[in-house]
Amino acid sequence: MSVLPSQKLTIGELYVSMAVGLILFLLPNDMKNQFGTSPISMVFVGLMALVIVGVLYIAIKRYEAIGAAMLTQSIITVASFSFSIVNNVISGTNDYWSSISDYQLINMFVLWTVPFMLMVIIRMFTVGRYDTGNKRLRFARFLSLSLRALMIIYILVAVFKQIMPHRPDMINARSIYYMPFTKIKDCIYGNNGGSIAYLVWHCLILAPFTFSLLILNSKLRWYNILIISLATGLTIEILQFSLNTGIVYTDDFIMYIISGFIGMILKRLIDTIRSCVTKGEEKNMMSLDYTPIVKKRFSGDDSAETENILSSEMTVEEISE
Predict the structure, then answer these.
(1) Beta bridge partners of 294
(2) Distance separating alpha carbons of residues 187 and 203, to the nearest angstrom
(3) Cα-flanking dihedrals φ and ψ of residue 22, to 5°?
(4) What is the tens place of the pLDDT at every residue in 6-43?
(5) Does an H or E element contain 7, and which?
């Protein structure tokens, strides 16, 4: 029985996946109670997530199960954050505005990246009799679920970490710096409150967005990514300026463009490695449109012909989808 027809997970598999998602959500707090917010705590979060997800994949052997766990973890994270805001407002707390700490931010990144990259690496090097049409189809479904999980977390982070890290201030004067490379130099040399962390953050902020867009539409070219990065960065800066929740720098646009291209490079790097592993048979692994298996059929005169055929493991229902 399948309760998610498009994902092909049974009730039991879905239940186990959701339970793992809950465990992943609780993991950062458990490590925080043990080690505080030190870097070692974040390392243990990543290692434990790797073990938990690895065991789940070995037990169920379905990419979709990992995607369901990631989606569950993301939904619970956003629900918990929203409940915190509502609770602060109802209780009349003066400082009711909830913010995302660096510890929470890094763990959100770790808890999405570790399961995702583990599945990508497994899929990337799956060849021979293990590389079936069914496996490719399941990985495409995993991409669908994991990207939904990413977008849920990404919107939360973009709003409460980048656009509105604190309450809007409609009274005090707004700040904008037009001189290019001013902020970048301050970050490199540590002047005027600049830091490497600020530089790294702004050079990565749009990477998940463009990475996801290219999976959804692999036909996007570098100039499309350039335009999308500029438009998205402009939207963020306009909101920051209008709400007076941050200083607008010309350098931010330079870093937004860099972050957009980092997402594109990462996606194409994975596809290139997979293409090399399969000797060019599968050139676009990171796509919701999976590549059918290509097998050789020999005719009577021993001349090889090729045809695209689906694995015999696939059902008629799966093909129709």
Answers:
(1) 308
(2) 12
(3) -65, -40
(4) 557 889 999 999 999 999 999 999 999 988 988 999 99
(5) none
pLDDT averaged over every residue in the chain: 86
How many residues are recorded in the chain?
A: 321
Residue 256 near residue 232 (C-beta atoms within 8 A): yes
Nearest to 286 by CA among 213, 201, 179: 213
Widest CA span in the chain:
84
What confidence category does residue 316 fall into, taking pLDDT thresholds of 50, 70 and 90?
Answer: very low
What is the model's pTM?
Answer: 0.86
Instruction: With cut-offs at 50, 70 and 90, classify the pLDDT of residue 129.
Output: confident
DSSP assigned state of 128: G
Residue boundaries of the structural domains of the chain: 1-166, 168-290
Q: Which residues contact 210 (CB under 8 A, 6 or more apart)?
A: 225, 228, 229, 259, 260, 261, 262, 263, 264
- Please, are residues 52 and 60 in contact by the beta-carbon 8 Å criterion? no
The beta-carbon contacts of 218-223 under 8 Å, at least 24 apart in sequence, are 218/284, 218/286, 218/287, 222/261, 222/264
CA 24 – CA 241 distance, rounded (Å):
36
**How many whole angstroms separate alpha carbon 234 and alpha carbon 240?**
10
Name beta bridge partners: 306.
296
* Residue 252 main-chain phi, psi, to 5 deg: -60, -35
Q: How many CB atoms lie within 10 A of CB 32?
A: 17
Tracing tokens 């970048």 back to the chain, one arrives at: 184
Look at residues 294, 297, 259, 261 and name the one whose alpha carbon lies nearest to residue 278: 294
Kindly report the number of other CB atoms within 10 A of residue 164's CB atom. Answer: 17
**Whose CA is closest to 2, among 85, 62, 45?**
62
Strand intervals (E) in the chain: 176-177, 248-249, 293-298, 304-309
Helices 250-277 and 222-243: crossing angle in degrees, nearest 10, is 140
Provide φ and ψ at 185, rounded to 5°: -65, -40
Asked if 262 and 253 count as a contact pair (C-beta separation under 8 A), the reply is no
Strands 248-249 vs 176-177: parallel, antiparallel or unpaired: parallel
